[in-house]
Amino acid sequence: MTIPRSFLTCIALSSAMTAAFAAGPAANPAPPASAPVTKAAATNAPAATPPAPAPAPAGLTLDDYIKDLTAQLNLTDSEKRQIERFYVADGGQVKDILNNDAISPLQQAQQVAAIRDTRNTRIEALLDGLDRQRDFLRIEAKYRVALTELAADGGLVAAPPPAPPAPAAK
Questions:
Q1: Model confidence pTM above 0.85
Q2: What average pLDDT does the segment 87-105 reach?
C-alpha cells in the first residue's frame, strides 16, 4: 500500500508544528514594542527555533523505536512495556484510518494526530520529570512519520496468538 504524498506532507507539517510547540515558550521573550532596543539587547537576541529533528531511518520497527526510547530516557522495564502497549493498542485503529480510501488525507491526518496526542499524553504522564517528558516528545517527533508508515502497513498491530499445534496423525 502506498501512502498518498499529500498525507505525508500533512504528517510532516504536523510534526514540525508539534516540535515547535513542544519546545515551549521562548526563554527570553521579546521586549514590548514600546521598550527601547539597546545594542546589548540586540546582540543578545535569542536564536531561532531549532530545526525539527532528522527523520528516523527507513525500515523502522517498533522494537527499534522502543530501544531508542529506552536508551535515551533510561526507561524501566515497566515503562518500556507500558509504552509499547500504548502503541500496539492504537496500531489497529491507525491502520484502519490510513487504509480507508473514504477518508480524505486531511481527515486521516487529523484523526491520526488525535490518537497520537492522546497516546503521547498518556506516555508523558507515565514519565517523571519535565526533562524526560520533553525528551520523549523530541524523540517521538523524530520517529513520527516512520511510525505512521509502520502503522499503515500493520507493523503496530499485535501479533495474533500462535495457532495450537495440529494433532499428530497416526
A1: no
A2: 94
Find out whether 159 and 30 touch, Cβ atoms under 8 Å: no
CB-count exposure of residue 63 (10 Å: 0-12, 13-18, 19+): exposed
Task: Extract the C-alpha cell encoding 66.
Answer: 522502543
CA count, 13 A, side-chain hemisphere, 77 = 0
Distances (CA, A) of 161 to 32, 158, 164, 165: 62, 9, 9, 12
Rounded to whole angstroms, how far apart are CA atoms 123 and 78? 12
Q: Which one, of 54, 70, 74, lies nearest residue 62 by Cα? A: 70
Q: Which amino acid, 95?
A: K
Domain ranges of the chain: 61-158
